[in-house]
């Protein structure tokens, strides 16, 4: 099912085409839903089935590439959310929370700037409803050597 609402129009304006939702890599589901909330499992920066940004921030991956990776992760979060909403992203009432995991060595401290790639896109897509609570955590590694992973919690109608 494909919605033709305001959020899909906004994605077109931004030049974003949602990919097919990625299949889980292990024993989990891509999202869960209950009582008007959707939790989307962590999404890595996949593009056309391949991890587009690998390595560690501050050790070969720039903050700008990290921001692009976080943005791509959020696009993949949106693909899962689109599926959860039956193809109608206009059902999203609010982005409640985003969680970001940034692969980096201990001396890296720009995690928040990296995660802004996802947060900024949430606001670009959903406007004020895209403003959210957030956690950003540095980690030593991520699946597939991905540079960034993003998860989300959304309120839907």
UniProtKB/TrEMBL annotation:
InterPro entries: Endoribo_LPSP/chorism_mut-like, RutC-like_sf. It holds the Pfam family YjgF_endoribonc. It comes from Craurococcus roseus. This is RidA family protein. Residues 8-150 form the Endoribonuclease L-PSP/chorismate mutase-like domain.
